[in-house]
Amino acid sequence: MSLSRAVAIARRIIRQFTRDRRTLAFIIIVPLVVMTLVGLSFPEEAVLDYVAPALMATLAMFFVFILTGVSFLRERAQGTMERLMASPVSRLEIALGYLLGFFLFAAAQALIILLFTILVLGVHYQGALWQIFVFQLIITVGALNLGMFVSTYARNEFQVVQFIPLILAPQVFLCGVIWPVEQMPNYLQAISKVLPLTYAVDGLRGIMLDGSTLVGVGLDLGVLLAFAAAMTVLGAVALRRGAPA
Amino acid sequence: MPMMPGENPQHLAVWADNVSFAYGDVKALQGLKLQVPRGISFGLLGPNGAGKTTLIRILAGLLRPQNGSIQVLGESSARKVAQLIGYMPQVPALYAELSALENVDFFARLYGLSNRRQRAQRVEEALRFVDLWERRNAPTLKLSGGMKQRVSLACAIVHQPPLLVLDEPTVGLDPELRVTFWDHFHSMTREGITLIISSHTMDDAAHCDRLAFLRSGRVIAEGSPQELREATGNLEASLEDAFLYFVRQGVSGDVA
Known about the structure:
The complex is a heterodimer of chains A (245) and B (256). By secondary structure, chain A is an all-alpha fold. Chain A has helices spanning 3-19, 21-41, 45-77, 80-86, 91-120, 129-151, 157-174, 186-192, 196-210, 218-242. In chain A, α5 (91-120) packs across α6 (129-151) and α6 (129-151) packs antiparallel against α9. With 256 residues, chain B is an alpha/beta fold. In chain B, β6, α6 and β7 (194-199) form a beta-alpha-beta unit. The chains are: A mainly alpha (245), B alpha/beta (256). The interface between A and B is medium-sized, with 24 and 29 residues.
């Protein structure tokens, strides 16, 4: 494996996004608009404090999933992915390159969401700010790779967008975002245990509401890291499947 | 002088034996046999659905034959072959937000040109070769279709591969640019580079040193344009006539 090839892909992605001013503006503005709506929708401080970590986790996952899913699909549709696959670059190098390239923008979105939540919405938090941010980054890494993996099963933008209700919406209902997992029927609780957002919400609430450290939410962190690693490998394996016939 | 066809796959640019590939029930290649000598332009000619693009994708390592064997420049490992070939897909396949120079530089990095000075030199050579050095900083988005094709060619040759695999490289080009492309291709074969070019136009075919006529996933005839024309028994036959002749004959083989 050559890190320099992965870095070349990452540099190219960063360059592409920074040239596309409108997309760049959307990456910054959309989280702000959504978080403003969240703030206006929950005027009660206590409710907002409880809901905010879950929504931060959900939105971090949601935005990054769309960003990578559509970008990866576009690369296949315009034929550049085929060209990459014909070069000596390995599939793992491609997956890693994408991960590095998109991570910058995913991290920027996560930071915007965090700062807006704390500074503008005034959400209270117990844990260290940097630990909240690190946890958010781990969530985005998993979502990045999930977007890459899923996009190999889509042939066009319409299909990739259909994965949002299929993959993300059930997690919003089953992972403790709206109501506690413990209050759901047993079979739904069992399903929630295999969904990454459950651990994202639980971990972020642990740090923000209970003042836990990253070590304290180690189980959640470990599951999210394992999910991210699994998605990287699956994304790399699925790349060949996604190559146009 | 180009090397003549031989039995030893090591000495050939491409050696394919009994190669088959199917997309579900649709058989794209059926027991295809092919030997391409090094240092020539070799055309894969045939109508849509003949199996040209499937064969090109197998040569480029994008597909694996489901049956049979294939060697490219004496190598059968797709990973090793990838470093030895330059691939130009049918569509330009470039990054629209990047300049011509940035696109070529990106592919130079992928092919392992890590030394900055050497890479800059190769990128310049490639862009000068396709006569786009003066437009190197123009965003690809703003280039004409023909210019994008030239950038695409520069991306394929920047690592100076001994074999170029070109999928319909002249599609959509105006007649003047088509001539320019063939000037490029001829100058490459003079330097010993092998070119494998798929096309469905007889105009391209006439420029090739050797041709294989493909139909229904098989090679129905192979030889130089002159040999293929002469095989019809009509000295004034065009390559189109020759193709139709072999289709009607239903023969398969080397006419040389």
